[in-house]
Amino acid sequence: MQCVSIVKSTGKNAKNLSELRTIISEVSDESIFHHVYQYFLKGHILEYTNDFAHWAGEHLEESALAERLTSIDPYTGEYVDEKVLDERLAKAEPYTHESVNKVRKELIRKIDDFLKEYPEPRDVVRGNEFYFHETVNLVFPVGVKAENLAEFLVAIEHIDAGSIYYHFYESRVRLGEGVSDDFSRWIEHTLFKKKVADRIRAIDPFMHSIKSVRENIKSIIEESVRADMEGVAD
Amino acid sequence: MIRQYSGIAPKGDLLLIQKLCEKLKGKSFLHINSTKEGGGVAEILNRMIPLLIDLGIDARWDVIEGDAKFFDFTKKTHNALQGKREKFTKDMWDYYYEVNRRNRKNLDLTADAVLIHDPQPAPLIMFRRKPSKKRKDIWMWRCHIDVSNPMASVWKNLKKYVEGYDAAIFSVAKFAKSLPIDEFIVTPSIDPLSDKNRNLTKKEIDGVGEKFNIPRDKPIILQVSRFDKFKDPIGVINAYKIVKKYNDCRLILAGSPATDDPEGEAILEEVKEYAGNDSDIHILMLPPDYHMEINALQRMADVILQKSIKEGFGLTVSEAMWKEKPIIGGAVGGIPLQIVHGFTGFVVHSVEGAAFRIRQYLNNPEMAKRMGQQGKEYVRNNFLLTRQIRDYLSLWYCNIHRGQNVIEL
Predict the structure, then answer these.
(1) How far is residue B319's CA from residue B315's CA, in Å, rounded to a whole number?
(2) Which residues of B touch A163 (CB under 8 A)?
(3) Shortest CA distance to B171 belongs to which of B41, B291, B270, B276?
(4) Per-residue confidence (pLDDT) for residue B79, from 0 to 100
(5) Does the structure show a pLDDT above 90 at B178?
(6) Nearest to B99, CA basis, from B66, B126, B52
(7) N or C, which end of chain B is more exposed by having fewer CB within 10 Å?
(8) Is the Cβ pair B170, A9 closer than 8 Å?
(9) Helix, strand, coil proportions of chain A in percent (round to 5)?
(10) Which residues from B are below 8 Å from A45, CB to CB?
(11) Could you tell me how many CB contacts below 8 A there are between chain A and chain B?
């Protein structure tokens, strides 16, 4: 599957930190979702992990605030097993946005803490305001199928960055708290290769670009496929 | 036709275009603007319409007609929407509506989706067919110009029409206005298959070098833009002069005449005078259809600049990046959206900053190559024509499924 996002303007923008805080507190879940979770879809640079931290660092030029906002982990919660996930899916729709609201509270808390310690930063230069967006997301099958790890290896090389995003990042919010990526779930529960799944699950989503997530997964799978071919026990 | 982009554009974009066309097969998609030739809008529609027809969409492109009085007025509104103060009378606005009303008689406005480009044909919304229980056409207004700081009265008059549409589309978030309708952001794009961007042979590139008497004996720094003060050609020469103290190089300033800018000629003279007798500075005034020549100049350059101090979107940046060239751009308009600072190029705020980054590139060819390659991939994923076609179709489809944030195909 792959996800393509069409950006929609909310018509809201902030020229300073107080305005940013106010709008964060009232803007839609979809907007917070876009600026935090979909940051990884934009070919991000690794200094930041969401649009708010990026803006604080690059336009507000408040490194201390940028560092704090960057440290917000939107993928909270303990890892849940497949049974819990099945139960969750049976009673609730995906994208419940429970975690989005936690992130919203955390953003406000970090900004409030910063404002207690530091003076209010100046307004940004005109044109560099923070523009709040939402997205409409189109999800579609890319027609690439894998039935074993060797086929998966070919597929992971072939698919677009948008598809890696969908299965590695968006899965975590689509299926709710405590769920990791789609790849490791499939490898563990369909191919029963728990060790390989655990290694993929251990790839830190914040410390890699989509390109390097792809490279990491490839090398883990390659190693496993080679070991299988050589008859080395898992 | 879409096969031509296979191996060039992202697979997902091509796939989504095909999937959306399957869903929308047989439906009609009408585009209306005010010119068949010249400008980025016509360039995109020329490519897009046949491609959509090929994929089963009943796509049409019509142009409104007007006299000199009408186009004088729309030129003035164009300037005023970009912040210039102009004088308007009620008669002018009445005439604007009247010309659109007359055009309505010659145009077939019946279509499932209608995309109106820019302010000239905006009043056509007044003549949309009435929705029935079974059918509701979708009308979208596409604004290609920077309306972030318009003359208030002009925007107020135009807004009356814009509010009648189902959605408005802007190129950059900061151009979007406060409107009671849905507003989407769709960035412009370049066509990788056009003469301006297609691959060229070494012979073609060398031929252009010879045509303009440009020796290839030292690194070439290039800026392609109109001779306009907002493109800061004098600043580019100053940056070159700083670099020249450390690294021997050539500078090419290539552009076409700014016909709608009375200051254009004066700026060109000023630039020539400022360049003086330096035989390493080449000032090239090119006809507007010299696309292949511009392409060749970009491909022979070692560093490309777009040191604007005011800019709309600045697609010359994406053109340079598509050719894997290390790029330096002013931090204005759409330039920072294309250049991820330190990753796909450098964004600068001064002459000194531009000079420093040129020296960095010239002294670190490995870094320049890496950033050029990253730039090309960034353009591939974000600024190719196929992405813009994908977005227009997506917007149409999203409007049919209004209210859903996640749409599965």
Answers:
(1) 6
(2) 12
(3) B41
(4) 86
(5) no
(6) B66
(7) N
(8) yes
(9) 55, 10, 35
(10) 340, 342-343
(11) 98
A231 falls in which pLDDT band (50, 70, 90)?
A: confident
Query: Which DSSP helix (H) or strand (E) runs through A198?
Result: helix A194-201
Strands A2-14 and A130-140: antiparallel
Q: Is A163 on the interface with B (CB under 8 A)?
A: yes
Beta bridge pairs of residue A130: A14
Residue A126 per-residue DSSP state = T
Is B179 touching A (CB cutoff 8 A)?
yes
Under DSSP, is residue A140 helix (H, G, I), strand (E, B) or coil?
A: strand
The pLDDT, as a whole number, for residue A39 is 86
C-alpha B132/C-alpha B105 separation (Å) is 22
Region A59-83: mean pLDDT is 81
CA angle B225, B122, B23 (to 5 degrees): 90
Nearest to A4 among B148, B173, B390 (CB): B390
Paired strand residues for B221: B251, B303
At what angle are helices A182-189 and A82-91 packed, to 10 degrees? Answer: 120
Starting at the edge strand found earlier in the chain, the sheet holding B250-255 runs B281-285, B250-255, B220-224, B303-306, B327-330, B346-348
pLDDT in tens, A123-170: 998 888 999 999 999 999 998 999 999 999 999 999 988 899 999 988
H-helix or E-strand spanning residue A115? helix A98-117
User: What is d(CA B41, CA B44) in angstroms, rounded to the nearest whole number?
Assistant: 5
Kindly report the number of other CB atoms within 10 A of residue B312's CB atom.
Answer: 20
pLDDT digits (tens, 9 = 90+) for B324-356: 999 999 998 889 999 999 999 999 999 999 999
Residue B240 binned pLDDT confidence (cut-offs 50, 70, 90): very high
B11-15, B254-258, B328-332: least confidently modelled range: B254-258
List chain B residues with CB under 8 Å of A43: 340, 378, 381-382
ipTM of the complex model: 0.84
Burial class (CB in 10 A: 0-12, 13-18, 19+), B20: buried
Confidence of residue A54 (pLDDT cuts 50, 70, 90): very high
Residue B132 φ/ψ, nearest 5 degrees: -115, 180
